[in-house]
Amino acid sequence: MYSITVRDHILISHSLKDRVFGPAQSLHGATYVVDAEFKTKQLDEHNTVIDMGKVSKVLKQVCAGLNYQNLDDHSELSQQLTTTEYLAWYIYREISKQVSSYFTGSLKVVLHESHIAWGSYEGDMG
After folding, report:
1. Which of 13, 50, 63, 104 could form a disulfide with 8 if both were Cys (CB 3.0 to 4.6 A apart)?
2. Do residues 111 and 122 make contact, with C-beta atoms less than 8 angstroms apart?
3. pTM
4. How many domains does the chain have?
């Protein structure tokens, strides 16, 4: 399996309004390093998994829609528990919308909340 990974970051605020989250029920901030790893069994005609520059721009655009946002007020996320895992899925979905017409491998989005904790979502795109 071949892969490439592109990276960006987001700074968000949110609250996780469920008692299971203890103090995280209150509004708090988080900084995530966001990795998008594209995987495929076969390289394309240019011997690449996918155009790294192109998907770097896609990731930057998706992250820009979340960066410096209070997710409690975000039009698509305000009714969700925006856990690390859920945000990984959301970013996966937004990237998929933009690359599914020309990429058929798998995509894994990892959100690194710290050097000791992260969450991810991975799925096939074709």
Report:
1. 63
2. no
3. 0.96
4. 1
Q: How many helices (H) and strands (E) does the chain have?
A: 2, 5
Average pLDDT for the chain: 96
Give the strand pairing for 2-14 and 69-70: parallel
CATH number of the domain that 25 lies in? Answer: 3.30.479.10
Kindly list the distances between the CA atom of residue 99 and the CA atoms of 43, 66, 89, 102, 105, in Å, as whole numbers in the listed order. Answer: 16, 19, 15, 6, 10
Query: With contact defined as beta carbons under 8 Å apart, do 8 and 60 qualify?
Result: yes
Site of tokens 């721009």: 57
Query: Domain limits at 91?
Result: 2-124
Listed residue (116, 99, 113) closest to 38, CA to CA: 99
* Bridge-based pairing state of the strands 106-112 and 28-40: antiparallel
